[in-house]
# Entry
Amino acid sequence: MSLSEFQLIERFFAGLGAARADVRLGHGDDAALVDCGGATLALAVDTLIEGVHFPADAPAASIGHKLLAVNLSDMAAMGAEPAWALLALTLPAVDETRLAAIREGLDALASRHGLALIGGDTTRGESLVASLFVAGHAGEDALRRDGARPGDWVWVSGAPGEAAAGLALWQASVRDGPGVAQLLRRLHWPEPRVALGRGLRGVASAAVDVSDGVVADAGHLAHRSGVALTIRAADLPLSPALTACAGERAMEYALAGGDDYELLFTAPEAASEAVRRAADAAGVTVHPVGGVAAGRAEVTVIDADGAPMKVARGGYRHFDGGGGGR
Ligand SMILES: [Mg+2]
# Structure
């Protein structure tokens, strides 16, 4: 029997090494939290593999951008402010033009977020594999996946599903048409919601970034918080670009498509105005799309009539048998 990514981590890597008093939060969230000289740091690492996490023919600059964006998205999910990064790069060959473009994409996003790349490692290998370790400042009130409580509302930022629809277009060699440019931009140039995450500290009760898909990532949050989540499909924002390109499949993409790097979060109903203020300040749209209740830790998607919908088990899976987890 093969193991899911989570089973694999649980069996082989959980509780590895010494138990340290300065570890505030270990594996199982979007980032780890450690106490360091009176401050709380958020630490995360993520890997992009050519042909798995980005198409081999993706614009080179977008590879550098996306590598950092997926890591910054984990910082965003913790409400952390990214500060430092280390890069481990495996290359099949030294292609200076491609490397310069990757650097350019990385540098532009890093500069925008005040992040310094301060070291790393370069090796030769079969295909392009890039790992980025990122560290940032979180606070006492860092966001985590385990704080959702019955009665909270479930919110999502942006318009999920666009990146997955963009991937389908890219793979079908569709480059032009209504809405196409927007979906491809969302695929190749995701915008991590760092400012929103920072603004939600002290407002949201729990958060996760949407990398595997809304339903899959809501499931991660439900599991960690030990609560039941309901997602009202009719309240999920479907962008005109998504509807134009995906037609009847737009809802499927919005529920189960991955790679959006939006935030899915919960907050008490009384905090709704504060949520909207944080979103306005960050220049990001947010929508209430569901609720939290006591009960079995799982996600139920309901239609406009309140009837449960069957949703194909969402979420990108790195290994057979279970959920993903970026
Ligand atoms: Mg994540």
Q: What stands out?
A: The chain has two domains: 5-138, 153-302.
